[in-house]
Amino acid sequence: DVLVLLNQFAVDFSLPPDLPILCFIEFLLVPNQVELRDGDIRSDISALDTNVRNLLRRLDSPSKRLRILRKCLIIFENDGDCTDYERLSVVLSLYHTEISSALSRDSGKDNELMEKLVMEMDLVDRRRDALAILS
Question: What is the pTM of this model?
Answer without folding.
Answer: 0.88
